[in-house]
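Protein fold
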Amino acid sequence: MTSHCGELAAVATALLWTLSTLAWTSAGRRISVLSVCVIRLVMAVLPLAVYGQLTRGLALPVDASARQWWILGLSGWLGFFVSDLCLFKAFQVIGPRLSLLLLALTPPAATVISWVFLAEPLAARQWAAMAVTLAGIVWVVLERRPADDSPHPPGHLRLGVFLGLAAAASQAASTVLGRCGIGDYDASAATFVRILGGMVGYLVLATLLGRWSQILVATLHRRAMGILCLGTLVGPFAGVILYMVALRHCHAGVVSTIVATMPVLILPFSILLYRERVSLRAVGGALISVAGVAMLML
């Protein structure tokens, strides 16, 4: 069991991030996307501080080295700020289907970056497992629905593809930097540093756009705040801690591949919560993706 600690942590991360995605989507229907992005990170600070005080006797990651602050902070800036911002904008420009397809390029991108900069090549079996997993994801995401039939204007398509590729590239770089920076450092403290790095980006952006009044008004929305609180506990708190545990014990490309099963994991929730009809093609893609994850863990 311990030999698969990293893979199991990555599977748990994917499940928790799927739940948090449902929370962000629900909250985003009530308040602005920027408000959701900022408030979720602010909310994550308190449980991380309490957890750090109880487990390490340090509420804040003051024991992190200067190198860890720079690397993990940059990882958080790229992952929580750049990648999320590009992805949310891509959703608006070209829709979730094509955006998620482009985001599926994160695992191979993370693998290439890790191979080049960390000298961590994958075995042929792991490459094959990644290909099977991604094939299942692509099979699900590419399924055409009536809402997807309207063509995108050429300019919008180019912008959306650029944003999707930027989201995948920044998420891949964030993953590799997270693995490089954590070392033997505590996963929750590393998560705290990454979240602070992401918050820097949003603080600057919200200030430049003059959105602080909008964000403050959003905090008065009780329904949205309740949803964000639950989403924060399973996403930026528990999910990201497990993500850092996975990166400590497993190859960055493998972690990215397992986490990339989120578009597949969300299918049962779509059936139960939104009463959506899921086709046999989607079920088949889910089974293919699960088979790929199983190959990674063998």
Remarks:
- The chain has a mean pLDDT of 85.
- The CA atoms of residues 142 and 188 lie 36 Å apart.
- The two ends are 11 Å apart (CA to CA).
